[in-house]
Amino acid sequence: MRGWLKATIGLVVLSGLLVGADRIAVGVAEDQAADRMVSSGRMSQRPDISIEGFPFLTQALSMKLDDVRISSDGLTVGDGGRQVALRSFKARLSGVTVSDSLKSATVDSGTGSGLISYADLAQLLPPASQLMSGAGKLPVGGNTRLALSYGGPGKIKAALGPIAVGEGSLHNSGSTVTVDGFQLSALAGMFAGVTDQRLAPMSFTLDSLPAGLKLADKDGATPLPEGVQLTFEGKGVKLLG
Fold this sequence. Notes:
By secondary structure, the chain is an alpha+beta fold. It has 2 domains: 2-115 and 234-240, no CATH class; 119-205, no CATH class. The chain has helices at residues 2-39, 56-62, 118-124, 186-192; strands at residues 48-51, 64-72, 75-78, 83-98, 105-116, 147-150, 155-160, 163-173, 176-180, 202-205, 214-215, 221-224, 227-240. The protein is elongated, with a radius of gyration of 25 Å.
């Protein structure tokens, strides 16, 4: 009985040491991956990375990670010329194949999401003075932009100061986001000197999206009360290298 007890205690101690070594190893790998994602240009700011699954060391030996989670609240996205904040970014990557020393990594599939405020969305759209689709113009200066807000499912509202411009739709095709369908209100039309006037469609194309993902083909940009949610996806994504 005494020998059995010693063996049991020894196994418990050994298991604890192995678990501790595994957790240290995964922590080091997470830090290295976060640094590499910034240096490779896949992320504009160092993210928080969590490698899920236990034990990590067996995944490391196979050079394939089952489930990797990424989060950051300080990223930026834009159209190449203008950059805005992407808040509350979260991504889940499945089947991440890595090379020695994390020099390269590919992802079988990944999904994610983030949020752009309506104030930042307005910065990606043309100035209000460029938005008339026919005769007439809005009574604004050259760099004045629309004030945008939530207008219901799939809709956003626009205004110029206290003057309501109307309600439009927001949708995407690939990484190109389009806002269209704005009909000038009677008051805005009176100021512009036109009636039954629609604003020209407004579009921008996002580049350098985080973690090598792209906007989802369906509902990749969705108006919510707190801002526009961007939904990301990807298959065979090149994460590093």
